[in-house]
């Protein structure tokens, strides 16, 4: 079933999950789950509360041990510890914001850049993914929080420059002018973008987004949709867990539906939306809106 709906623009297989079973004591959180995400593809993972979505993410990130089955990233076994994620080209956002409220916006994103230092470009010859806004000027960062001396000492082209990379990631998400502010001073939608910038600064080849649209209004969701499409257009594989079904159906190339830890549907959004098993899993609620 996985991979059947891989669109023509999708590249090599980035994430491959086969027969994934995770038990917590007597509870089967996942049973025999198969899932594929190709380079350049956006796959949505949906399902009712407790269906096992977060457990899939945790298994991919090495935070839970599979009871059975395999998870591979670019054909290699998935990292077994979080420290292996960045070198494997995997970045993740958290269900909550997961930001450090005492740090500035820039420092929060630098945390993501530091985690990849020496590793961001170690994930193969296919190069890092970035998602510059179309037409965005890369030469001037109006919100550059560094001093003139710092700017002189670190040219924007030095890719190993942690602050420079973090600033570029912020600029890509229209947050450059927020760099020096305490992150807690930003409105919630901008904090969500900071969390996304922190994942993107790692220049991932596989991006895991945990409820990226949670708490956002229509305008911010439209912007998020455009951002995810830009990221995927760089060849990055994107897997997103999301309760906002309309957003998922609009954005994703493929949608995988979990219920009680099992895959009950995997296909194009329009087919999944019409699938009676999916409607039933959502307790008869039409799968058109949350
Ligand atoms: N560490 C754990 N120990 C025991 N049970 C767990 C653990 N993590 C998850 N579970 C259980 O596994 C099942 C799947 O949980 P999971 O969080 O993956 O679901 P989910 O689809 O992400 O839910 P939600 O949409 O509410 O976030 C649930 O029954 C949950 O209570």
UniProtKB/TrEMBL annotation:
Top-level division of the source organism's lineage: Bacteria
Compositionally biased spans, kind Basic and acidic residues: 141-163
One example GO MF annotation: ATP binding
Region (Disordered): 117-163
Record domain ABC transporter: where: 15-285
Pfam family, one: BCA_ABC_TP_C
SUPFAM superfamilies associated with the record: P-loop containing nucleoside triphosphate hydrolases (SSF52540)
Compositional bias (Low complexity): 125-140
UniProt cross-references to InterPro entries, sorted A to Z: AAA+_ATPase, ABC_AA/LPS_Transport, ABC_transporter-like_ATP-bd, BCA_ABC_TP_C, P-loop_NTPase
GO cellular component: plasma membrane
Protein keywords: ATP-binding, Nucleotide-binding, Transport
Keyword ATP-binding annotated: yes
Record-given protein name: ABC transporter ATP-binding protein
